[in-house]
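TL;DR need structure tokens for one chain.
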Amino acid sequence: MKGSAIGLVVVGSGLLAVTATSLTGNPAVSGKANSVANRTAPGSVPARYERLFNAWGNECDAITPSILAAQLKQESGFNPKAKSPVGAMGIAQFMPGTWKNSGFDGNKDGKKDVWDPEDAIPSAAKYMCSVSRDVKDVPGDKTRLALAGYNAGPRAVQKYRGIPPYKETENYVSTIMASAAKMGQAVGGQSNVAVEAVNYASAQIGKDYVWGGNGDADGGFDCSGLTKAAYAQAGVTLPRVASAQYTHLDNDGSLVEKSDLRIGDLVFFSKKKQAGKATPADIDHVGIYIGRGHFLNAPRTGAKVRIEKIWWGTYMGAGRVYPKSTKTKEV
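>> reply
TL;DR here they are.
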């Protein structure tokens, strides 16, 4: 890691990664974190390293292949011969002391070579997992905390009980998260817009709930601000509030039954549901479904964007967002 004495490191969160099986039919999720994508997208990393990122990017819940790849892209630009002014070495930019303690013989040739990606990429994954364990008692998103620990050191994360207030570290984390969202690939037949929307929303985990928030100047989201921003990232425009989003999908013929829920579907709720009085106009909350009864949610003032079990007691229905907001086809 550049400019740090600690060495190398790395997303993990309450986020539930989608398995290959889950992307078709009724979705299912594993305990793995971060993103709907669990492989790097073709062409997003040098072909000679694709196998390594996909093999080692599932080493623990704090990383995915796209997170590991985005981190090493940030560290060295995928240059196995890179050396920083402070002495960080190789594709993963390990400091000498860190490599001595954490280097791993990934290709089992009998030596640990910091300049060999076959060793350095597996070592980066393992070191990331080690840092994640060091900060496991700090509340927040596993991946963001691990990335922060990689850049600023685990002790700094422990001291501040979260991402340290260092501009370099904050930029490091946000840059890698954004880059990873573009480098991941779904492993099934889910629509591209759903994948992009879930990846975007996943990257917002840990951000503050802000009433009326769209994630721009205020930096946070409310429920419909999150869903609108996520699908805007995928090129689809949605109305601003939850009830309007439901009506929009209803008019478009895109409402779906609970038994047909898929990853990326919008799920809607109304507090009046409990009294049996709710109508579509009473819908007051929306989130993004990610499988097995869980959804990405910006819940309320004082809380943060997170994953929760669906509030079945106030559940009103769901709708599927299609490219260009039409129901013509999934791509």
